[in-house]
Specification:
single chain, alpha/beta, Purple Acid Phosphatase, chain A, domain 2, three-stranded parallel beta sheet, 7 helices, cell inner membrane, UDP-diacylglucosamine_Hdrlase
Length: about 220
């Protein structure tokens, strides 16, 4: 469904912003993985057709590097990223940095985002990293099947501070698996927060900005 989206609907836009966790796991740009290569090639084809593509690191693909960016023809974005358009201002983020009540995750995030830790990880043999990637994918699939899994949400006070820091721009993020549109009132100013939906085998979703309004667009396997 995502490959069909890249080959069709996405190319009707000027730009596509992917806000992290494009891949379930990424253990180095030098891993030769047919599944990942297919997606990388599809991104390159969409870019070659004129679509500007921007990708942000997520908590699963935090190791995406410049080699991948060059191969895919995309631009890696910092997190957060202020997107100022002629008509409106947005702030984009993966969202995990604001899940401050999940202390175990924040400790993990600080470790894996450390440049020295990433350097040591990339220095490990490719075979070992590939096995690690398979294990992470297996563990993630098992967790998804467990309906008792509860994902942390953004901390309200930290979110309000974040909105202040970014001039009350409309906030778009993912990570929490809780697709919704929230109304925040910060210092008397109404600010919208849009949470991206997960993609599943039977449906996906993209946010569409047409210069006036932001809307959710449902994507189906055969659409």
């Amino acid at each position: 469904m995502f490959l069909r989206f890249l080959a069709g609907r996405a190319r009707q836009a000027e730009a596509l912003y992917i806000l992290g966790d494009l891949f379930e796991v990424w253990v180095g740009d030098d891993i030769d993985d047919p599944y990942h290569n297919r997606i990388t090639a599809a991104l390159r084809a969409a870019g070659d057709a004129g679509l500007k593509i921007f990708v942000m690191h997520g908590n699963r693909d935090f190791a995406l590097g410049e080699q991948f960016a060059a191969a895919a023809g995309i631009t890696l974005l910092p997190d957060p990223y202020d997107l100022t358009l002629p008509e409106w201002s947005f702030v984009l983020s993966h969202g995990d940095a604001l899940c401050l009540d999940d202390h175990a995750y924040q400790a993990y995030r600080a470790k894996v985002r450390d440049p020295e830790w990433q350097r040591k990880m990339r220095a490990k043999p490719r075979v070992l990293r590939s096995l690690l990637g398979r294990y992470i994918r297996w563990r993630s699939a098992r967790r998804k099947r467990d309906h008792r899994t509860v994902y942390a949400d953004l901390q309200p006070a930290a979110t309000d501070d974040f909105l202040r820091d970014h001039a009350y721009a409309t906030f778009i993020h993912g990570h929490t698996h809780r697709a919704a549109t929230h109304d925040h009132f910060v210092d008397g100013i109404h600010v919208e927060r849009w949470v991206l939906a997960d993609w599943h085998e039977d449906r996906g979703e993209a946010l569409l900005w047409d210069g006036e309004t932001l809307t959710r667009e449902t994507l189906l396997p055969e659409s």
